[in-house]
Structures
1.
Amino acid sequence: MSYRKEVKVTAVLELRQARVSDHHVIVGCVQQWWNDSRTPDQAHELSLLLPRLFLQFFSRTSLVLEDDEGIRAFLIGFHAADNEEEAYIHFVGVDPSLRGQGLARRLYTAFLRHAAEAGRRHVRAITSPGNTGSISFHQAMGFTVEPGDRDIDGVPVRIDYDGPGQDRVCFYRNILSQDENVRP
């Protein structure tokens, strides 16, 4: 187990849209930030979930938080092409030294607001059944766990969702547009 130094956010973190040029940095962040909970090979494998295409085609809906040290948190998300009412949060990362300080909440809130402004009414996300921190975070953000094929430790899980042995917890959240005076 590695020691994680907590760093208080003292500088202002700028929130901006992601750019294609961020791809290399974000992949490096995944490989570095998940090194505390995975082997280097596993962290590399995880980074493969972020091919360049996400920033080539969804940079407008993906977000980055950065300061003078660089990217400190990111959210890769998009508006569904086949369903004009849905958006999807694909991958979120926060520098381990800054976790627990509301950065993921800030990214989700901005994504939900932009999705609502674009007329999206629902947002989906998934996580692994063993990622209890992610499950708790999504529930705290107002996401509902969708029904699954089986319960694991009291959590509904969709078996083989992403292929054999790739079980997932699926989340769903309704958001309403600003016209309806409801904030995401």
2.
Amino acid sequence: MKLLLIEDDLPTAGYVCQGLVELGHACDLASTGLDGLTAGLTKDYDAIILDRNLPLMDGLSVLEALRAQGHKTPVLILSALGQVDDRIKGLNAGGDDYLTKPFSFQELVARLAAIVRRVEGVATPPRTRHIADLELDLLTRVARRGERRIELSNKEFQLLDYFLRHIGQVVTRTMLIEAAWDYSFDPGTNLVDVHISRLRAKLDGDGEAPLLHTVRGAGYRLDAN
């Protein structure tokens, strides 16, 4: 998932972002409410983790502004304010869930998954994604082509998952950067192309029909045709 964390407490932010990245997610960090609102309005995220007490603009104001602009991105409020009235205010402002500090990282991850499922209207998350004879297991993060097992790095998993959610579509480098890297990524590097080259080499074995195609001047496309 592509996630936005709006949190001004740097130790908490570092702990959460590191844990999310280790799980294979991309995590953008904003340390003020104003920066968080700007990111939420200008970029696409699967979910937002939002602290309430923020400099420049408080968390509930950020949330209300996002909802006023029609943004339906699921929001998990993360706050030390844990009284019933506090939780009610957060949910009434447009929050999808409310987690009080201190918190369990595992619970945070589970709550994120739950609010994303609810917004997508899916009772249970898909276990696998498919195209032709390629299967990606979202839990083990292992891909297979037929009986051949393909081990993936975290970035390769994120990229392949993104391609499998956009089968047949032309995917640009910018789209891939937004899906698998955070906002500090330097778009001038060739790192995306390097990862794509490695992923293609793993997916398309000897005698197997190519699945990952280069669209000259535009980007890449995952397609069985």
3.
Amino acid sequence: MNDPLADEKTSRASIRRRGREPGGPRSHRFKVSFNDAELAIVKEAADRENQALASWVGQAALAVATELVVPVSADAKVVLHELIRSRGQLRRIGNNLNQVAYALNSEGEVTDAQIKAVLARVHEAVRHVDEATLQVMRERQPRS
């Protein structure tokens, strides 16, 4: 027969707890309230990290308070992803420009169409990076 207490002990043993801090035991407690949707989101995040809910909330709060983690909106995450993607694209385009310069320097043949294609990619990639950068700057909130 399946022992519910054994199953409960097994599931609890797999949750990673936050380690003890060198400052001594944590004696200060406070209540945090969530609605159902918020609680589901926070529980999912704690589960992803394999942590107990209170441990995850405490660790996340400390990380933000000590600026180890800077919270960003979902829109900002999309913008940051675009910046990362654009940086890779610019790196590839820079390689193309180096190949064009090498061909020109070694008296190779480079057509106007090839140069225009590379420059069009440069212009498009720079435009994407500029837009993403401006979006991040608009969303950035000054710290006081």
4.
Amino acid sequence: MKYLIKITILISLLVNIAYAQEVELKNSKYDITQCIKVKYTKEDIENYKKLINQGELQGYSCAGIYYMRQGDFKEAINYFNKGKEKGSIESYAQLGSLYSSFLHDDKKAVENYKVAANAGDGKSAHNLGVYYYKNFNYDEAYKWFMKSYETGDMNSLISIGLMYIDEKKYDEAINTFKKVGELGEPRGYRSLGILFIKNKDVKNDKEGIKYLKKCYEMGYGKCASSIGEYYEEDKKDYKKAEEWYKKGFNLKYKGAVQKLGLLYEKILKDYDKAIYWYEKGFNKLNCMNCAFNLAMLYNIDIKDYKKAEEWYKKAADLKDRGAMYNLAYMFEYDLKNKKNAIIWYKKAAKLGHEKAINKLNDLGVSYE
């Protein structure tokens, strides 16, 4: 009888393996980015289930992403596996991400990424490249980055350039970044500019600024900000730094206006201008860090706790758990309001803020 049970199990496994091999891997034209949101409602999961009932392959991945973002990894895996059974390449890719980013199971992540990557999914090939890069297996990383690049992913070509820098193959890195820029991706020129400015082995500020300006002229605001940082940090030329940070802001780069606010706040000690640019960054570009920095300015330097509370809450609305924690800390220590402190520590703790969790433990309060 025992042998019969073992044979039955073996036959079942062989049938499942054969079935898995016969499943045709498929892509869908449905845009999966529609299912990636900052906030979800119960209506969202109902809509994803309707997609499944309508025969839309991406419905399984959408439902899986929904549960993954809610922290229900068991249910997420369930939906991704159902998608895999239907041949969904996206489900393999998303399951790889879940194992990699949340469950930290590299073996299972790599298994799923490889299926998706070999079926033509560029982002999975890129993620495999990153995995092997981090583990110093450059040959394997190069193979997967190239596979990703062949699907049109410029990030992988940039990653190859960065890998060459790690190996001190500077000529190869320079040629790779130039190729990226010549293909119309400004980040290639930015990477080249940063290499010349920051790396002592090939340092050439003039060349670095030249490529950052080429990048800026392509409309990439981050390059204007990088030039601003060069003038602020390397040359202490704050007027030039202001000029370039403003150019970055005009190209809608949030980091530039944040750096401008910090320049006025920390170095030039002009709080009025710092407040002006932080507010402008938040109101015009929805810059979360601008709201957080402004709250800190009101809290620590100006001691206007009402204004600090207002701006911490604006950042908290954008899911900034650091703002939630700081607001709780301000309530506890500056305003002596333990009740409100606990409310905000709990909000931060639910988003995984370790210090907030420790604070609640110290206060003898559960955040569940």
